[in-house]
Design brief:
This protein is of the alpha+beta class. The chain contains eleven helices and 14 strands.
């Protein structure tokens, strides 16, 4: 990989294929809050509102992505980085809900959902929102909302970590111990543009053209046609599995925790559809080198995996086939599905849509990411109001706890079907992990 260096034009940079996809998805529907990534926390204790406001200002100054706006120039979409001293940058807004007629829990739930589900105008400034609402003398709720075009799931975690460090610095007069940022996301976008226009990704593009040429067009789920895109989330814990147990089983099977989960998910889909192959979207972190590890930006690449799902296969055969498919895709993950679509290498476009697309992710949650001095911060759920895909399933890892979350449109997929899918996934995962652990025990006693 060629070395990523600061771009020559500090004011603007090209956009990446993923950002251009996000731009089109945002403008393709009026209910586009599905592009928002959000995190909310209830805060108990003597919060220093002024210190939090200054910490947000310093966070926005630190990360160029949080002060980036988007402008079109003919057919081109550019990202423009505003100076850290510019007016009208994202800042902390505050409200007082203490006199709300609802009890504090209801008021917080309603307020957080409204803040997270409010759309951004991408032409109206950097799409980042930091909002605080007071619900009692020493109780408040903080909501951080970032549009996907400027961040990814890892970036939200980084922003929360940095915000906590900056708040601590403001309240203790100690320096914030944060890593240096030798390059930022617009520098990566400039590098990607330069590489792509000089043939640097031709080998990866050729792989995807071959891999997807004969792929099925859609995932065969029992969809009821509807124009209603209101989404809901089905949530259930993984009662028999901890993150540590999952990691040990993956190591024993010489694969990753994500592939272990994906294998069980593919098997559950096969149980319900009878199909021998499913297209499953996933996000690839795409932090190519150490200088990018600590930055906020839309680094993640959208991939589509051809997951073989033979209904008659055993658990280990299913795992081996899934591992092979995933590792081959990840070896070419520097080029996203969005770049493949832009290159027009295929007869059809594989794009997220609410009619057919299925996504499956393993993500790290936000618990314990906001340690504020003297304040107890507890993650508060934010509900999905709409969805880009037909079905988005994720396993969320918070410490040792694992939770399954399936977001879907009830008007398109029945809740009964989603519950059946979740049950079959858990059964498949139980059987797979038990199979791996049995092999380990057998080897140890042989």
């Amino acid at each position: 990989m060629s070395y990523i260096t600061p771009r020559p034009d500090i004011r603007r940079a090209p956009t990446t294929p993923a950002q251009r996809r996000d731009w089109r998805a945002h403008h393709g529907r009026s209910d586009n809050a599905f592009m928002n990534l959000s995190a909310a926390f209830t805060l108990e204790g003597p919060l220093d509102e002024g210190a939090l406001r200054r910490a947000v200002d310093r966070l926005v100054a630190r990360h160029e992505a949080l002060r980036t706006e988007f402008r079109t120039d003919g057919d081109l979409l550019w990202q423009h980085v505003l100076p850290a001293t510019a007016e009208h940058l994202p800042s902390l807004t505050t409200e007082d809900l203490a006199d709300d007629a609802l009890d504090p829990d209801q008021a917080e739930r309603r307020w957080a959902a409204a803040v997270a589900d409010r759309s951004f105008g991408l032409e109206a400034g950097p799409p980042a929102r930091f909002a605080l609402a007071r619900t009692g003398p020493e109780r408040a709720i903080l909501c951080v909302v970032l549009h996907h075009i400027i961040c990814d799931q890892t970036s939200v975690r980084i922003a929360l970590r940095d915000l906590a460090a900056l708040y601590t610095a403001e309240t203790t007069s100690a320096p914030a111990e944060l890593p240096e940022l030798p390059v930022q996301f617009p520098d990566y976008a400039h590098w990607w543009h330069e590489r792509s226009t000089t043939g640097g990704f031709d080998r990866n593009l050729a792989h995807w053209a071959r891999s997807l040429a004969d792929a099925p067009a859609v995932t065969p789920l029992p969809v009821t046609p509807s124009q209603d895109r209101h989404a809901t989330t089905y949530t259930t814990p993984l009662p028999h599995h901890s993150a540590d147990r999952l990691a040990r089983a993956a190591a024993e099977a010489r694969t990753t925790p994500y592939v272990l989960l994906l294998s069980a998910f593919g098997g559950a889909l096969a149980d319900l559809t009878g199909a021998r192959e499913h297209l499953v979207e996933c996000g690839y972190a795409n932090r190519l080198s150490a200088p990018l590890w600590e930055g906020v930006g839309r680094f993640s690449n959208n991939l589509v995996l051809r997951v073989p799902t033979d209904p008659g296969a055993g658990t280990r055969e299913q795992l081996a086939a899934t591992h092979s498919a995933a590792m081959t895709a990840f070896a070419h993950a520097r080029v996203s599905l969005d770049a493949v679509n832009e290159a027009a290498l295929l007869d059809r476009q594989y794009v997220p849509n609410p009619e057919s697309a299925v996504a499956f992710q393993l993500i790290d949650g936000f618990t314990d990411l906001l340690p504020l001095p003297g304040v107890v911060a507890e993650q508060h759920p934010t509900a999905a109001g709409s969805i880009l895909d037909l079905l988005s399933v994720m396993v969320e890892r918070n410490g040792s706890r694992l939770t399954l979350r399936a977001t879907y449109c009830p008007s398109l997929l029945s809740t009964t079907w989603i519950e059946d899918l979740a049950r079959r996934f858990l059964d498949r995962l139980d059987a797979l992990v038990a199979d791996v652990e049995h092999d380990r025990t057998a080897e140890a006693t042989a």
